[in-house]
Structure to design on (579 residues):
């Protein structure tokens, strides 16, 4: 028997996680060349659908456990379907490995697919690909030169590569049903209850709740009394673990953050008295859904995300997957840039900072998901839309890496040094009046971040004149630290080059609603142009998310705040220490 449950539920319930179902798909080929005869195009479609569902490219799957009936009709058709899909994105030195458990004990009918899953789970666990028995050489009925696929005629080591081991399992029913499931190595185990009693490496949260403010204050008083009665213990990690895992959750909530008993005593005292404290956050529980908001450039700083790479295996694994995806399009190492390694390029370069921010945001989203925080919608602002599209499933990780890397390289090569951007603390209508004398060819609105937060872009000299005029009127205006004019007419210089560079991008149907801050939809090559005449606007997308019952959660690397009410959203802080 196989037990399948959400990863977050399995972790919360203390169940061992043997592998993770990354994606799956089913279809039916009965209307093709006969109910009982296999159909190659249908098998190719189910493979591509499963890859799309898993948000993976074919090159990111290491081995396929074939249905493998051993017939002269079925095996060549299945092999050709694998060659036409997986075989096209693998290489001769890193082929797709192919085997079938039916060579061990035959066809188990309705249990055949389960047998394949069990075989691949154990292969992932032991890091070894078993030999397929009774096969000495490839079938002559298959054109093996059509793609990079190799039969497992010998036991093969399956080493760690910096990303999870992944396997796909095919199972085809006698009535024409095709099923394809992709499983992957489980993330490293998070600390157990016993581990939680060890000294904390940093700040810890204590979570309290009550049915009313009075009940919440009373709970704080009881916890204070308990601490006073037991001066030698319990340790803060023990209390935090118990509060988070063994208590009912009510509408009135408070989170206390501290590193030692003194911190928590101060916060508990403030909560009991109804006072504010730096270590205390209070609020009401809501039944709203969660939306992830991905900000644009400007939130980076040296050393960002290093703490999370060291503390979170889930975050670190996704960072390494992003590094592998970006490596095809860049000549620098993502991990070396984040860690500030000697010789690594600076975050001052647009062709470095944008891919790095993309990787951090995608990895933060993966961390949130591993903790059970799953988005009901995603919103991206400016270049943050690339990360949002990846998390929504609109772009595979490889396609998203292509977009963010090649797009930022084109910006740096063609636009760098020719423009700039300025943030102005005025409503957009007022800003448009102020910049009118320069004309849209010299200054234009680039982004509307809130009711009184607008970014303009344009020529450096014109922006200098605008800043001087704003300062004379005591209007806050500051330069954004970039040397190009994004979301301006200058971007037209990139159009033809980017359309050619991004032509291989293959958009997919979104698994999570994807709210654009430019067009409201779209994901083809022209959709990833840095916007020309269309400024980005966070407020409408945030409002669409909230009107759908969502509260927004920032997946950027700094705190991002929008104004309250219909024109704004809310956000959080992810400064590399944890979500």
């Amino acid at each position: 028997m196989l037990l399948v449950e959400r990863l977050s539920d399995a972790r919360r319930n203390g169940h061992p996680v043997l592998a993770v179902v990354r994606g799956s798909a089913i279809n039916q080929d009965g209307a093709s060349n006969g109910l009982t005869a296999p159909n190659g195009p249908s098998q190719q479609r189910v493979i591509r659908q499963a890859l799309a569902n898993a948000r993976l490219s074919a090159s990111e799957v290491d081995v396929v456990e074939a249905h493998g009936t051993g017939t002269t009709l079925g095996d060549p058709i299945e092999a050709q379907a694998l060659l036409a899909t997986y075989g096209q994105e693998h290489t001769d030195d890193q082929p797709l490995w192919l085997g079938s458990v039916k060579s061990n004990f035959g066809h188990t009918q309705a249990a055949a697919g389960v047998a394949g899953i069990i075989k691949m789970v154990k292969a992932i666990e032991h890091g070894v690909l078993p030999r397929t028995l009774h096969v000495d050489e490839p079938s002559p009925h298959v054109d093996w030169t059509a793609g990079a696929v190799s039969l497992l005629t010998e036991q093969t080591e399956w080493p760690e590569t910096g990303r999870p081991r992944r396997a796909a399992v095919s199972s085809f029913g006698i009535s024409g049903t095709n099923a394809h499931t992709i499983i992957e190595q489980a993330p490293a185990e998070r600390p157990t209850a016993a581990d939680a009693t060890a000294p904390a490496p940093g700040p810890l949260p204590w979570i309290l709740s009550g049915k009313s403010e009075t009940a919440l204050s009373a709970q704080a008083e009881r916890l204070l009394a308990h601490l006073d009665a037991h001066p030698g213990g319990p340790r803060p990690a023990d209390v935090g673990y118990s509060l988070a895992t063994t208590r009912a959750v009510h509408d009135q909530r408070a989170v206390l953050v501290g590193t030692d008993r003194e911190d928590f005593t101060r916060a508990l005292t403030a909560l009991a008295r109804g006072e504010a404290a730096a270590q205390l956050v209070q609020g009401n529980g809501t039944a709203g859904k969660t939306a992830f908001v991905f900000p644009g450039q400007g939130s980076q700083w040296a050393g960002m995300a290093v703490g999370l790479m060291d503390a979170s295996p889930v975050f670190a694994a996704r960072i390494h997957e992003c590094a592998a995806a970006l490596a095809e399009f860049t000549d620098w190492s993502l991990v070396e840039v984040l860690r500030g390694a000697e010789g690594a390029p600076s975050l001052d370069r647009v062709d470095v900072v944008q891919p790095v921010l993309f990787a951090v945001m995608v990895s933060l989203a993966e961390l949130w998901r591993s903790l059970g925080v799953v988005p009901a919608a995603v919103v991206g602002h400016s270049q943050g839309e690339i990360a949002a599209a990846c998390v929504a499933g609109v772009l595979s990780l490889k396609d998203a890496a292509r977009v963010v890397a090649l797009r930022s390289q084109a910006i740096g090569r063609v636009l760098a040094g020719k423009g700039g951007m300025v943030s102005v603390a005025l409503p957009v209508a007022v800003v448009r009046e102020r910049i009118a004398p320069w004309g849209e060819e010299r200054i234009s609105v680039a982004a509307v971040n809130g009711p009184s937060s607008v970014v303009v872009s344009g020529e450096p000299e014109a922006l200098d004149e605008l800043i001087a005029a704003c300062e004379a009127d005591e209007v806050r205006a500051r330069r954004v630290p970039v040397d190009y004019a994004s979301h301006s007419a200058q971007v037209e210089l990139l159009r033809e080059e980017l359309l050619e560079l991004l032509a291989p991008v293959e958009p997919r149907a979104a698994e999570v609603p994807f709210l654009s801050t430019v067009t409201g939809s779209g994901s083809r090559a022209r959709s990833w142009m840095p916007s020309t005449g269309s400024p980005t606007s966070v407020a409408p997308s945030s409002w669409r998310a909230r009107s759908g019952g969502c509260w927004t959660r920032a997946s950027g690397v700094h705190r991002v705040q929008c104004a309250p009410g219909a024109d704004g959203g809310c956000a959080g802080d992810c400064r590399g220490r944890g979500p």
Notes: Confidence is low (pLDDT under 50) at residues 191-200, 520-526, 538-547, 557-579. The first helix runs from residue 7 to 12.
